[in-house]
Amino acid sequence: MAKRTKCDCERGGSFPISAAGFSRRQFLKVTGTGIVASYFLPVANARLLQSATAVNPSLHRTAKNCIMIFLSGAPSHIDTWDLKEGAWTPLDFAPTTFGQIRFPQGLMPNTANQLGNMAIVRSGLSWAAVHQLAQAWAQIARNPGGATGSIAPHIGAVVALESQASRQTGDILPGFVSLNQVMASSGYLPARYAPFAVTPSAAGLAALTHPDGAARLADRWNTLQLLDSDRQTGALGRNASDMGTFYDQAKTLIDSPDVNRLFSYTTDESVRYGTTGFGNSLIIARNLVNARRGTRFVQVTLGGWDHHSNIYNKNANSLYTQMKTFDPAFSALLTDLANTAGSQSGATLLDETLVVVLGEFGRTVGALNAQGGRDHFLRMSVVFAGGGIRGGNVIGATDDAGKDAKEFGWAANRDVRPEDVTSTIYSALGIDYTTVRHDDPLNRGFEYVPFAKDGTYGPVNELFLKEQTEKHRCVKCLSEVSREEYLRNDFLCDRCAEIEEYPLQSTPETMNDER
User: Fold this and answer.
1) Is 297:196 a contact under the CB 8 Å cutoff?
2) pLDDT reading at 503 higher than 70
3) What 3-state class would DSSP assign to 301?
4) Which residues contact 354 (CB under 8 A, 6 or more apart)?
5) Considering only CA atoms, which of 178, 79, 108 is closest in space to residue 332?
6) What is the CATH superfamily name and number for domain 24-201+293-469?
7) Please, how many CA atoms are within 13 Å of residue 398, restricted to the half-sphere of its CB?
8) How does DSSP classify residue 416?
9) Which range has the top average pLDDT, 40-44, 206-210, 360-364?
10) How far is CA 398 from CA 77, 148, 462, in A?
11) Residue 444 · residue 148 · CB < 8 Å
């Protein structure tokens, strides 16, 4: 795997204007992102930009649904998915080795049993160490303060839009459902793609039953259609049209007597998922993707991970209390998805559902701070499961502290950014992440993932099953090489690439000529 000795997450680094592979054109591209230097890393990274050429999208099409579990507040990566042991490590973390994964089994005993279904990306890196900015970035795949940040839809809204054409008559559920907290919207897209916000309740959605009865509701609905016909024509503008869409969606749900069971759960189910609001939300997420009634993207948010203090204190909000909520629920979700038949013969619902777990960034490494906690830090981990992902897999490796990526673990040979995570989700769902729409109100052209069409960002292909079994040979000496080496060197092995003076050694001047 490619080696790395210095992490970009250190602030105060010099602007790499003279770095190999950096040109005036690339400088203009970076400044166009609108990144605020006081908040973010040096973005003008030649390694990130030097391969920005037109690409064909790599679409895996291995999943039909996605459940994103967002851990807002940012969990400590070195205490969870990228365990680093030291004098600070509590003994009851019980670190245990599972294949190539060192894992805090004592902290997450149920999740430990699911490692064979999970892949962990350890070379993740956030752009921002500020909660609101990094949370938005992770969910809209771009800088919130950039040119299109204010109009950008949530990833789930894009999924709902892309799945609209394939909806069937019985697909009555919203394409995008958000449980516990809505953290982004449909942006400039129509409101029909906005997240349908749900707070879990054992009784389901109380608003599905009209207090005056179905007959009275039908009379009122018919009267509304007569009095408010312009709501359907668009003559009153987008806001009125969006409100009309909300009315129509609500009426469809009310008229579907079986829909409420999808938003309900039994006491036994709740207990198995940990008897928490988060666990109950995962039950509903499971129900929605299993129903196959139109919901393609579900986000479940679990807050409380901002552990600047008392991170190991069992009597306060800490990793212990958070994992008592997360661990049984997450494990139960994967178990149920794996034990439920999918829509295709021989497939399970887990095979058809991509599950992604992430926060907005990681937390400081080494010894705890003076308050017994960990502060904001850009290095982070991302977990994937199901949806064609090869379980028991680790992408990338950090140094002994968990600070710098010493191995990136994928063909791009750099940190995995939020844009790459989004590209991976889209690719699994068969959505072209290089898409540029030309219906945005800014008339700029809206990219699903900015700069993906130029090859700057893309899916982590090494996560997927089929990529692990492909054989590649150097086109010059015919020696067998890894996919990472094969793509990194334009189909050459490292040895032949060195002899050929591979373009990564190009100067800014020759890069300009090549482009």
Assistant:
1) no
2) no
3) strand
4) 62, 63, 65, 66, 67, 384, 385, 386, 387, 388, 389, 425, 428, 429
5) 108
6) Alkaline Phosphatase, subunit A (3.40.720.10)
7) 30
8) B
9) 360-364
10) 11, 33, 17
11) yes
DSSP character string of 6-44: S-TT-TTPPP-TTSTT--HHHHHHHHTTT--TTTB----
Tokens standing for 331?
Answer: 């494990």
Q: Cβ(283)–Cβ(265) under 8 Å?
A: yes
Given a cut of 60, is residue 45 above it in pLDDT?
Answer: no
Amino acid residing at 116 = G
Question: Where in the chain are the domains?
Answer: 24-201+293-469, 472-515
Q: What is the dihedral of CA 227, 229, 230, 232, to 10 degrees?
A: 140
Per-residue pLDDT of 422-455, as tens digits, reads 999 999 999 999 999 999 999 999 999 999 999 9
pLDDT digits (tens, 9 = 90+) for 387-401: 999 999 999 999 999
User: With contact defined as beta carbons under 8 Å apart, do 132 and 179 qualify?
Assistant: no
Q: Among residues 452, 449, 360, which one has the least CA distance to residue 148? A: 449
- For residues 269 and 202, give the distance between their C-alpha atoms in angstroms, rounded to a whole number: 10
Joined together, the tokens standing for residue 171 give: 């697909």
- Nearest CA to 415 out of 182, 206, 122, 57 is that of 122
Going edge to edge, which strands form the sheet with 379-385? 196-198, 176-179, 297-301, 65-70, 353-358, 379-385, 118-125, 393-395
Q: How far is CA 415 from CA 4, 194, 314, 405, 411, in A?
A: 10, 31, 34, 7, 11
Closest by CA to 348, choosing from 63, 11, 68, 81, is 63
Please check whether residue 156 is in contact with residue 447, taking contact to mean a CB–CB distance below 8 angstroms. no
Using the structure block, give the residue that is written with the tokens 């038949």: 341
Whether 75 contacts 359, CB under 8 Å? yes
Confidence of residue 329 (pLDDT cuts 50, 70, 90): very high
Burial 320-342 (b: 16+ CB within 10 A, else e): bebbebbbbbbbbbbbbbbeeeb
Greatest CA separation for the chain: 81
Tally of CB atoms within 10 A around 20: 16
What are 395's two structure tokens? Answer: 């992408």
* Residue 46: HSE in the Cβ half-sphere, 13 Å Cα cutoff: 19
